[in-house]
Design goal:
Largest sheet: 2 strands, antiparallel
Low-confidence stretches: none
Distance between the termini: 37 Å
Shape: elongated
Strand order of the largest sheet: 1-2
Number of helices: 5
Structural class: mainly alpha
Order of helices and strands: EEHHEEHHH
Radius of gyration: 20 Å
Length: about 130
C-alpha cells in the first residue's frame, strides 16, 4: 500500500493515501491515528532501503572504526561522500516521520522478517528451480 493514492468524496474528490483513506474514511478511525499509521507505512520502505544501503556500504569494505575520544563510529575518507549522502537521506526521512521513527523501525523489522525468505529452509528444501 506504499505510495498508492485514492480519491474520496462525493462532489469534490480529494486524493488521499490509500492507508489513510482505509483507516479514516473506511473504518472511521480518528484522523490523527490514521495519519500516524499512514506516516509509518510511507516511511517504512524508504527506511528499509536506506538500511540495506548502509549494510551494503559496510559489507563493501567501508571501515567504520572507533577513534579514541569519539562517541561513535568515524568514517574513512574514501567512503565519506557515500555516507554523507546516506546521512542526508536518513535525516530528511526522519524529519518527515518525526517521533514515529521507533515504531517505523519496528515495522521495518517486521517487513524484513516477513519478506525475507528464511535461510534455513533452503538447506532442507531447495528452490523449485534447483530440484530434479
Amino acid at each position: 500500500y506504499h505510495g498508492l493514492v485514492t480519491e474520496v468524496g462525493k462532489k469534490k474528490k480529494k486524493k488521499l493515501n490509500l492507508v489513510f483513506a482505509m483507516l479514516a474514511e473506511g473504518i472511521k478511525h480518528p484522523h490523527r491515528d490514521a495519519h500516524d499509521v499512514d506516516t509509518m507505512v510511507q516511511g517504512c520502505f524508504p527506511l528499509r532501503e536506506m538500511i540495506s544501503s548502509f549494510k551494503a556500504l559496510k559489507e563493501g569494505g567501508a571501515e567504520l572504526a572507533l577513534v579514541k575520544g569519539s562517541s561513535g563510529p568515524v568514517v574513512t575518507p574514501t567512503t565519506a561522500s557515500e555516507v554523507d549522502s546516506l546521512r542526508l537521506s536518513i535525516g530528511l526521512l526522519l524529519e518527515n516521520i518525526k517521533e514515529l521513527w521507533a515504531p517505523t523501525l519496528d515495522l521495518v523489522r517486521v517487513a524484513e522478517a516477513v519478506l525475507s525468505p528464511p535461510a534455513a529452509s533452503y538447506a532442507t528444501h531447495p528452490p523449485l528451480s534447483e530440484r530434479d
